[in-house]
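input
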Amino acid sequence: QTTENVAIYAIRWLGCLLLMEYFTHRFPFFAVISSGLVQHLTIAETAVLFYLTLKIMWLKFLLIWRFFRLWALADGVFVPENMIRCMSNNCSLEQFWKGWHSSFNKWLVRYLYKPLGGRDCRYVSVWLIFLFVALWHDLEPKLLAWGVLNAFFYVVEVLCRRVVKQYKPSAFLNALCVLGSAVYIGVLILVNLIGYSGAAGQSQLRVLFMRLTSTEGLTVLLVSGYFLVLGIFFMDYLKQMGCTASKDS
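output
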């Protein structure tokens, strides 16, 4: 049972649905990618296109899973919340995947993560788990690449956290962590673009990666990184002030 207000939850879901309808009507991101118009856009426009397309995909899954959660809540059954935070509001790959499909994550922890050794063997088991998840979606090279990249960056994240814990808190260490967090938001965007882009999207994605190596592309990356760092500082400030309620646990 749950004391969650079903009416408010339904209103919030309806608001997300209206937002989805507005975006798909006013900004046909998927149509632009499929049409091949990407090559006629500037690198900044292309980056914004792929970024917002990923957000639309996130919103699409949110609507699907929260609709059925709403149905369950209306029937008096409490189920885990999915899509807790998007990749722009989460600096941790581990926490992101815990909240993306939270109910599936709980299943993976119970039937794969713990039987494979839990925390003591996570550097090895994470590769098998992400491989299983990739195959669970479909047998495609892009999804296998998605799984390998997720496992690799998960191991890097865990190792970096172990190193950081050995040092005393300081302004320099905090700034370094914020910079790393900005990089990991980029990592989340990158791996999800690789894994969830369609056939047309994959070809256009290659065009984007090639153009990012140009002078204009590097400028776009630096400006984007600057604003990501500002956003992370702001999110940390809100957490310190107690203005946010986290459901990550």
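quick obs: The chain has a mean pLDDT of 84.
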